From TrEMBL:
The keyword Transcription does not apply. This is Flavoprotein. Pfam families: HI0933_like, HI0933_like_1st. PANTHER family: OS12G0638800 PROTEIN (PTHR42887:SF2). It comes from Cellvibrio zantedeschiae. It comes from the Bacteria. Residues 8-398 form the RsdA/BaiN/AoA(So)-like Rossmann fold-like domain. NCBIfam families: aminoacetone oxidase family FAD-binding enzyme. Its cofactor is FAD.
Amino acid sequence: MSSPQNIDVLIIGAGAAGLMCAANAAARGRNVVVVDHANKVGKKILMSGGGRCNFTNMEVLPKHYLSANPHFFKSALARFTQWDFIALVLKHGVAYHEKKLGQLFCDNKAQDILDLLLDECAEAGASIFTHCDIKTIEALSAEHAPARYKVATSLGDYLCESLVIATGGLSIPTMGATGFGYQVAEQFGLALKPRTAGLVPFTLSPTQLEQFKDCVGNAAEVTVTCGTQSFTENLLFTHRGLSGPAILQISSYWQPGQNLEINLLPQLDLVDYLTRQQQERPKVLLTTLMSELLTKSIAQSFCSFVTEIRPVNQYTPKEIQAIADLFHKWEIMPAGTEGYRTAEVTLGGVDVDGLSSKTMEAKNQPGLFFIGEVVDVTGHLGGFNFQWAWASGFAAAQFV
Ligand code: FDA
């Protein structure tokens, strides 16, 4: 049995947060090793943003994040901002563009972002190993100082002063996601917040699917509301339920059993519009008018809930109000979500009250750090989750 390797920093998880932390810690002169159980590093980076990686956003604000403590993430995000990451992107000559709503994507492919991180790691001297299974983690007594942890792996044992857990969340298990980080947190007495799938499509019941079967493949710009949270973006009807950016965003705020209220025409006052049409185009059928505002399938599906389809001038003001409510206040209770199989993120995770917001170090366990998605900090859709990975990785890197 070969003797353990003495290093300064062992990072478990070579994803967005782990690689960012590795590059910056190694740049400080620390002897850094990153290990990952997968056959390739950065798999989620490669599949992100439809293969083009939405790596950050032009506007990063606290309102774009969910956490049991809505102040925890502010410090790290302020110390490594979107502008810092954009500077890195420019340094590496990665071509990028703003798609919409401040979302920055690679012009070419997500591999450019992974290459950027790997180049930074190589330049700073961080070592990265794949195919590495973690067997045990042991906290060492003071007599082993400066080493504080012994980590037994399939590639050999490491003694390290700082141990960084960057193993991400539970989404897309086929890409190597595991609950490993949560187990480590539990092993060292850190609390966990309940975990659920976030940024995930909704499923509908068989009856609801039947009602909207003609809408499959159709999209509309809607405002979807759940409780006090609203998003105005596209909604897409699918074979299994509802998807599209508006739905993914609201899914992070939804609890089973809650209704969604969906305004299918958020830019229009339908009572006002139909009342004017009664004067201007009195003989036009309601379905024809609605098909001018929404796709024909969506318009017809929703008009099927109107007792009788008539020329628009034949509806009373009360009926016009009821028709408007149908389109402006569509209430639907999803059957569930697609779960971790397709979710972009995991909500919940390592309770931030147990971590330092300055260093990401466990308050009760010196030298143990948690960064990235494993922590109970989740961003909205739009590059905010990577920005958290970069920022938390950078924050920890200054103190490991
Ligand atoms: P990440 O998941 O990146 O890395 C964790 C690493 O740990 C992996 O390499 C894994 O193999 C390794 N690991 C896990 N368990 C281990 C174990 N037991 N032992 C050793 N290694 C282990 N966000 C965004 O901002 N913009 C976007 O465009 C997208 N797009 C997107 C698309 C899809 C399909 C998904 C699933 C997700 C996104 N995201 C996103 C979210 C984003 O990918 C996510 O928030 C970050 O990758 C999180 O970074 P981490 O480094 O924390 O985990």
